[in-house]
Amino acid sequence: MENxxxxxxxxxxxxxxxxxxxxxxxxxxxxxGGTILNGRGLGINEAKKFLxxxxxxEKEVVLILTKHSCKTxxxxxxxxxxxxxxxxxxxxxxxxxxxxxxxxx
Length: 105
What we know:
Oligomer: single chain
Shape: elongated
CATH topology: Alpha-Beta Plaits
Strand order of the largest sheet: 2-5-1-6
Helix content: 10-25%
Strand content: 35-45%
Radius of gyration: 16 Å
Number of domains: 1
CATH architecture: 2-Layer Sandwich
Low-confidence stretches: none
């Protein structure tokens, strides 16, 4: 059981202005906080032209490190609050974390 993953990193990408909403939804289901990074989306339907200049959709990337046991509940809450069928148009995925330093639980 020593190789069992204790933590996961939940990565959520939402439209600009919806990062705080994603973190608040996550807090209601066990997250203690998160980090919001600014980004730009570029997909086949994302790029828009204005006066000949290609504009890219502003995004927020929300990173939440959580215990493995809390991951599913947090992801479901985020999806309900800012998921792809909401104005936040968010997508959420997780990655296992091998090692963590500075986190005490």
